[in-house]
Amino acid sequence: MMYFAAVVIIVITTLAFVLFANGEEETDNAAFLKSYGWEVQAQSIEKAEVIIPDPFDRVYENYNEMQIEAGLDLRPYMGMRGVRYTYIVDNYPRNVGEEVRANVLCVDGKAVGGDIMTVSIHGFMHSLNFSDALRK
Q1: DSSP annotation string for 81-105
Q2: 3-class SS of residue 134
Q3: Residue 61 contacts by C-beta under 8 Å, 6 or more apart in sequence?
């Protein structure tokens, strides 16, 4: 449930959609996700400006714990503006009955965090680690 709250926080902190994705950054994001074992569609389906809060509330502390599981940490980026890219995952290892998405958080054009999720009320969110998909 806390992971869903993190999604809500990310959506709430979305300030505005950023115009057209930079092709190089999209390629970098796909490579970033591939380093965790994920294959995604080449073009993001959503691109939104976000602010990583400073200080973190309880929800963001939990979200950051998920980042730490994947070898990432959002604390150095607290208070900074970034962009959240959302991609369709093509290789989720099991059928969950809905589209699976990968989010990548970028600050200054560099991927600094992300998650794997679905959008339904009964969906899920987990770290970028491919092994998390096998445990659920």
Answers
A1: EEEEEEEEBS--SS--SS--EEEEE
A2: helix
A3: none
Q: Kindly give, in sequence order, each residue whose CB lies less than 8 Å from that of residue 99, ignoring residues fewer than 6 positions away.
A: 88, 89, 118, 119
Global confidence as pTM: 0.82
Indicate the pairing of strand 46-51 with strand 110-117. Answer: unpaired
Amino acid at 1: M
3-to-13, 19, 26, 52, 73 alpha-carbon distances in Å: 15, 28, 25, 15, 16
Looking at residue 41, the DSSP 8-state letter turns out to be -
Q: Find residue 101's DSSP bridge partners.
A: 88, 117
* Bridge partner list, 51: 81
d(CA 67, CA 86): 16
- The two structure tokens encoding residue 115: 């998650």
For the stretch 23-61, pLDDT in tens is 567 889 999 999 999 999 999 999 999 999 999 999 999
E strand spans, the chain? 46-51, 81-88, 101-107, 110-117, 125-126
